[in-house]
Specification:
Layout (H helix, E strand, L loop, with lengths): L6 H9 L3 H8 L3 H9 L1 H11 L5 H9 L3 H4 L2 H24 L1
Helix pairs in contact: 1-4, 4-7
Length: 98
């Protein structure tokens, strides 16, 4: 059903998925895969903003440079930041148990 919506709305909805779920969502159907693959940079940039992986200063710098989105790999940024968050949570849990 996601593919039946206007692209802008479908992208917005996909951006709110948990990062771990974006890959699984792309496996739902060819249409979902196409939507996510074709709009990967936008979806992951929106997700980075939603999950606060960027500072306000970073967003201002991004918006002032028209080519900045082409330089940055948003999917990779989200992946690295998520790994850091999960590592911190794992370390905190270990310390609390020990």
């Amino acid at each position: 059903m996601l593919h039946l919506l206007p692209t802008e709305i479908a992208i917005e909805i996909a951006s709110y998925l948990p990062l771990q779920s974006l890959y699984q969502a792309s496996l739902v159907s060819r249409e979902w895969h196409g939507l996510i693959a074709d709009n990967e940079q936008t979806i992951y940039r929106n997700a980075a903003v939603l999950h606060r992986f960027l500072l306000h200063v970073d967003l201002e710098a991004e918006s002032s440079s028209p080519t900045s989105d082409k330089k940055r790999d948003w999917k990779q940024l989200c992946r690295r930041r998520l790994e850091i968050v999960l590592e911190i949570l794992s370390t905190s849990k270990t310390r609390m148990e020990g």
